[in-house]
Amino acid sequence: MSKYIFEIGNFGVRWYSLMLLIAAAVGVYLLLKEGLKYKFDTNFLFNLFFWVMVMAFIGARAYYVIFNFYLYEDDLLSIFKIWEGGLAIHGGIIAGFLTMLIYCKKYNAPLFKITDMSVLPLLVGQAIGRWGNFFNQEAHGAATTYLKLKHAHIPEFIIKNMNIDGTFYTPTFFYESLWCLLGALIVIFLRHYKYLKVGHLTSFYLMWYSVGRFVIESSRTDSLMLGGLKVAQIVSVVMFITGLLAFMVLSRRSKFENLYRETNANQIKF
Questions:
Q1: Which end of the chain is more exposed for a tag (fewer CB within 10 A), N or C?
Q2: What is the DSSP string of 43-60?
C-alpha cells in the first residue's frame, strides 16, 4: 500500500499527514462539544486547542529527535520533515500539558476540568493517529509469520501491509489503536457516573494509556532507548504512578466535592 494519497512530480501528500489532520479535527470537535455543556467559551477552547496542538507537535518531534539525533546530525534540515514520521506521543503529551497549564493560568480557567474534557479527544485522536503509522509501515513489533497474524484475527489488509520486504511484522500500532479506542469507550461511560470528580478522568487516562503502552512497547522494535531501557516504558511507569496517586488523593475527599458534572467554567476574560 502506497504511503502517498497522490504524487505530482517530487511533491506528494502522505496518508500519515492526513491521519494526523483527521485526528486533530475529531479532537477539536469532541472538545468543543463537551465544553459547551459546561459553559466554556468556544473561542477560548478553540484557541487553547490550537496552541496545545502546535506545541504538542513540536514537543513530539523534539522528543523523538533528541533520542534519535544520530539520524539527523548529518542532515539537520531533515528534522523538519515530520510528514515522514518520527513523532513521539509522550513528548506531545508533556508539551501539550505544559501549554495547557500556562494558558489556563493566564485566563484563570480550571486546568483539571479542561484536562478531563480533553481525555476523550486525546484517546480518540491517538486511536486515529496510529493509522498514520500503518501507512508508513512503522511502529510495528517483531518479525512474525502470516499464519500467526491470521490466527490472531488480524484483518487481512493489515497483514498485507505488515509484509515489509518479504517479512511479516507484528502490528503493534493496531493494538495501541484498539487500546485507545477501548479507553475512549470507557471514558464515555465514566462521564455519566454521578460522583465522578474533577481530575478522575485525567488520572484514568494516565493509568490506562500507560498500562497499554508499557505492555505494547515490550514488543516494538523501534523504541526510543536510554541506555538499555526503553524510554516509553520508563515514562509509562512515571505516568501510571502519577495517575494512581492523583486518583487516591481525589478518592479520599467527600464524594460530593468537586464533581465533574457540576463544575462549570470560570468567567474567562480575553
A1: C
A2: HHHHHHHHHHHHHHHHHH
Nearest to 123 by CA among 204, 199, 180, 75: 180
Give percent of the chain above pLDDT 70. Answer: 97
CA dist 20 and 96 (Å) reads 15
Task: Count the Cβ atoms, other than its own, within 10 Å of residue 165.
Answer: 5
**Burial per residue of 94-109, b for 16 or more beta-carbon CB atoms within 10 angstroms, e otherwise:** bbbbebbeebbeebeb
Nearest partner of 34 among 217, 212, 256, 201, judged by Cα: 201
Tell me which residue of 237, 201, 235, 232 sits closest to 218, measured CA to CA: 232
DSSP for 50-107, please give it: HHHHHHHHHHHHHHHHHHTGGGTTT-GGGGG-GGG----HHHHHHHHHHHHHHHHHHT
Residue 262 per-residue DSSP state: G
For residues 88-116, average pLDDT: 95
pLDDT confidence tier of residue 266, bands split at 50, 70 and 90: low
State pTM to two decimals: 0.92
pLDDT, the chain, mean? 92
Per the rule left: phi > 0, alpha: psi between -120 and 50, beta: everything else, 253 is beta
* Coil vs helix vs strand at 165: coil
Report the distance separating Cα 125 and Cα 177, nearest Å.
Answer: 9
End-to-end CA distance of the chain: 47
Average of pLDDT values for 90-116? 95
27 close to 130: Cβ distance less than 8 angstroms: no
3-state secondary structure of 270: coil
